Amino acid sequence: MTRLVLCLLLLLGATAGAQGSARRVAVVPLQALSGDLTSRGGPRLTERLMSELRGTGGLRLITPPPEEPPPDQLAPARAQVKEAEARRQQRDFAGAESALAQALEGYTTQAASLPHGQELADAHALRAAILYAQGKDEEATRAVTSALALAPGRALPLAATSPLFAHTVGRVQAALREQPRGSLRFTSAPTGVTVTLDGKRLESAPVRVAGVPPGLHLWRAELPSGEVAGGLVEVSSGQEAAVAIRPPGEGPSAVLAAALAGNRLDTAAVDAAAELGRSLGVDLLVFGTVSRTEEGLALDSFVLAPDTRAPRRLPRVTLDAELLDAGPRLRSLTGALAAQGAASGEAVRLPTAPAAQEAPDTRLLQVTYPEVAPPPAPATPTAPAPSRAPLTPRKPLIRP
Asked: pTM for the whole thing?
């Protein structure tokens, strides 16, 4: 009995020692290199790779703590708009203007959360009314211009509350029609991302939009990772503005993601990866790209020991588009990581392209700004038709 207990203690000690010596490894979300890849090309393949790492002896998968669901990021801006409306009713125009300036700043920061520009257009229209009340006609005209550009073809609800303001909106609208239009150029990393402008879907980036009315415009793009990028861009009359679509976020993870999405690994991206690995406290950091091949998908990945800043290229893994054969092939990759650690793969010289593939089609598509017909004027209400013939008047009653 004593011998059995000693054997168990030795076995437990050996197991604990093996777990303690396991290499800590983390995986950065894999970046798809084209907008036509489904979620399998990035998030799902990342999960499959993490699952194989979790089940590989000698490796200990480290994952960041789960993030709490973000609060309603537009709530502060909406609250400021309500405060501005209340102050305007009290004729506190300076206070209303201040509250609205904060609201518009919040909307600009969180523009990607706006499904369309109507809410923001109403905020600019309210600012215009407040500015007109203070005699700041030039600033007010610019605010009306922004409101009309953000929600083309839509009547501003505030204009219906004041004949004078409605006349001003009509005057600005007529002036805008006489101005030369501008253009807007979209590029993206990865390429092929579909863009919407002012709620209307355009072609995939890179794309140039001609005939864009002057003023502010809201753009949005959904990346292959499922993330949404978006923002506001101002187009000047007769000039071209440019928007570069990149994975959203801040910090080292965003720097690394933007580089990989553009099929690029350079010193700045490696420095970001090293900083990210140190913040997670790992021995190995795995990152890479997913691209389309004739047979399906290809995973081009790297491993980095954060203190060395010397990434090594892991063997390319080819997979079918549905990831049906992913298990054995990824298992071979994780087994090599467990056996060789930071010495896995081959050394690389920077800068380098993660995926050896044909150059993507970067022909610039040309489209015209999607015009929106103005809303029809409301029909004049008419009296309903009688449901039956009127009653015949009675003869006067004659008393005897």
From this structure: 0.81
